From TrEMBL:
<protein>
    <recommendedName>
        <fullName>Metallophosphoesterase 1</fullName>
    </recommendedName>
</protein>
<dbReference type="GO" id="GO:0012505">
    <property type="term" value="C:endomembrane system"/>
</dbReference>
<feature type="transmembrane region" description="Helical">
    <location>
        <begin position="360"/>
        <end position="387"/>
    </location>
</feature>
<dbReference type="InterPro" id="IPR033308">
    <property type="entry name" value="PGAP5/Cdc1/Ted1"/>
</dbReference>
<keyword id="KW-0337">GPI-anchor biosynthesis</keyword>
<keyword id="KW-0813">Transport</keyword>
<dbReference type="InterPro" id="IPR029052">
    <property type="entry name" value="Metallo-depent_PP-like"/>
</dbReference>
<feature type="domain" description="Calcineurin-like phosphoesterase">
    <location>
        <begin position="69"/>
        <end position="308"/>
    </location>
</feature>
<keyword id="KW-0812">Transmembrane</keyword>
<dbReference type="GO" id="GO:0006888">
    <property type="term" value="P:endoplasmic reticulum to Golgi vesicle-mediated transport"/>
</dbReference>
<comment type="function">
    <text>Metallophosphoesterase that catalyzes the removal of a side-chain ethanolamine-phosphate (EtNP) from the second mannose of the GPI-anchor protein intermediate. Participates in the glycan remodeling steps of GPI-anchor maturation to allow an efficient transport of GPI-anchor proteins from the endoplasmic reticulum to the Golgi.</text>
</comment>
<comment type="similarity">
    <text>Belongs to the metallophosphoesterase superfamily. MPPE1 family.</text>
</comment>
<keyword id="KW-0931">ER-Golgi transport</keyword>
<keyword id="KW-0378">Hydrolase</keyword>
<keyword id="KW-0479">Metal-binding</keyword>
<feature type="transmembrane region" description="Helical">
    <location>
        <begin position="20"/>
        <end position="43"/>
    </location>
</feature>
<dbReference type="InterPro" id="IPR039541">
    <property type="entry name" value="MPP_MPPE1"/>
</dbReference>
Amino acid sequence: MLSYSSTTVKNLPLKKRLCFLLKLVGFVTSVFIFCEFLIYYVVIFQCRWPEVKGGAPMGEKETSASVLKAMILADTHLLGEIKGHWFDKLRREWQMERSFQTALWLLQPDIVFILGDIFDEGKWSSPQAWADDVRRFRKMFKYPVSTELVVIVGNHDIGFHYEMTTYKVNRFEKVFNLTSGKLITRKGINFVLVNSVAMDGDGCAVCSTSEAKLVALSHKLNCSLQKPNHSNKRCSDVEELPASEPILLQHYPLYRKSDAECSGEDSAPPEEKNTPFKEKYDVLSQEASQKLIWWFHPRLILSGHTHSACEVLHAGKIPEVSVPSFSWRNRNNPSFIMGSITPTDFSLQKCFLPYESRVFTIYCAAGALFVILILAHVQLLTPPFYFAQRLISKHKA
């Protein structure tokens, strides 16, 4: 049968063989383009900005103008020169770049927050390696003038508390044009950016400076929330801010015992949920967590670090949302948060990115079909009817 097939192939006209080859190339190219480019449009196109209850009574134009559309992601972990294999870097950075750029094009957020651990090796990278990491980050996460990008510092960017130095903190803040303990206000909404790595409470230079800034911000915000007819000499010379309860943005989550109460398909795996969290390593200490709640009385806390999703209520009324990792290196199902926010209300919606396992399944199915097409073309794989017919004719002969 093999000799018959090879003879058949040789006898095929050159034009037919070239036509078949072009079809195979077209098939492979189509699968590649879909899995590496189009799939991000197909998946992210299904995401929608959530509606805010507070904006319902207003007219459509007024609502769209007053609602801030915020995209929140965390833990991109751009691989460095020490631990990053070239193919792993190429693959993960392409995935994140395509996801981010597609999301910007389809969703058009007003502002994007990245909640720390931008880099994987910022805590020990040399000046040359740092410059290369920053260059790659700017290429992957470039954004239009209509969108603002705000980056919060994480432990992999400047090191854990015992590795953190003023040099590393200044290097990070210089690149991303921010300072630890900064307040930004957009559309009447107050956001407090916290360097949670510096919330160790041991009086280190970076910690003291960061806490002093947070205390000053707390005073400003508390004065802005007081009623206009309430006289307070301490607030007479304070800069006036919008009377809106702040939203805290930080890398470490506030203290919780574990992820045992977390649920959802992107929460921690069952075998990890009951693992106790270590204070000042997995989560903030109880003391630091209480300080932030006392200082700011936030209406929402957004954090990262754990690479898994979780929703927690602090003091019975303050919600905290832990945002999963944006990198496929850390998760099979990365995602980001879409937030519609007003000065008095907010609504959050999760947008999942393509599952990597599904992309591999598509590649495997396409590979199997590719082999079948080739075998069928060279007549090594024939339909059962013709195969049986040949056996009968052979037997009669």
